[in-house]
Amino acid sequence: MNARKMLVSAILIVSIARMAGATECELAGDHPEWVFCHDFEAGDADGSDTYWSDYWNDTYGAPDRTYLIDETMAGVEGTQCMRLQVVNDTSVELTSGVSSGPKKFLGDVVSWDDLFFRRYVRFNADFHQGNFMHLGGMGACHPDDYPWACMGHSGERPVGDDRFSSNLEPWSSYQSLPWPGRWGFYSYYYEMHMDCGHPGPDDCYGDMFSPQTDAFITRGDWHVLEMTIHPGTPNQTDGSQAFWIDGEKILTVDGIAWRTTDELRINKVGVYLYIHNNPANTTNILDVDNVIISLNYVGPAPCEDSVELEVPCICEGTPDPEDASNVVNSGYCCDHSWQSEPCGTGDADADSDSDSDSDSDSDSDPDAGSGELSAGDNSCGCHAPGSLSFLSEGLLWTILF
Q: What is the largest CA-CA distance in the chain?
């Protein structure tokens, strides 16, 4: 064998070894568009104080309400995930909000405009948020105010050159919807208008955007959430935001005026669980795994080979923001080919039709995807308690460039 063939063979062997059993963030070198990646599999990811201080700017409730557990998703490589929990073991609801989870500020000056935020989440089987909760998202803070002056502005409309933010989270409509709630955006921007007048015209709580057909997910199961914000042109209503559940695009909101200056860019991304008034005798748990911040759409993670799949993932092909037909959450991925039976016992089904059985949106119209809204529409608004400090916080994972 000549030297060139030996080199090619060596590269192939290394590539195959790298792919086999590799966690998602171990493959980050193949994705220059990823800004951050964290799958909680780092060697020092042991839940110690050193881990939290090294990886995060700040953490709510570590180690009691934020910690790592030796459990992960069946069908995506890994052995650990992060658990966020809010406990009320009394006979009355809590009188003030409680937060758990980490945050990371991404830098006062960043180079990107659009950003994507993807995370896997699992709510415990009896999750019960009460009337209000927040679940993290993305935000922008002007470099002159970065980071602390942009925090603690619940109920205040931004002025356009200071900040904007949006969370992707469930809304219970005052405990009238299936838990954990209907998915949508909770957004602060300088032309917000849905829930103002508390008491003045600029005293506003977040505008809420959700698809016309409610989107729900099941408790007790892993789901993959992704959102993006396009800040648009300063002083123009050409901004937008969109979100996906289990690879299916659920909603796009156009016509948002996010900012009045291009110095205002997304520099905060967060995972946290905030319960306003945790109901009596309730333990609310959110497990989080495989978080990626990217310049482009990420989509569900690659399926683990030869194990029974219980989480949305991609066995064949690549993620497509407009087409979730190759997302599966059952059966087996056998050498990048899906089949319903264990590997070696059945024929691969190249159609990968099992994705139609996804539990995402199991209680809603399957045609709810690709909903379209305008920021001028009067969607429902959430009047959060005045004591809430609205934070669009961030988190650091593995820095890739």
A: 80
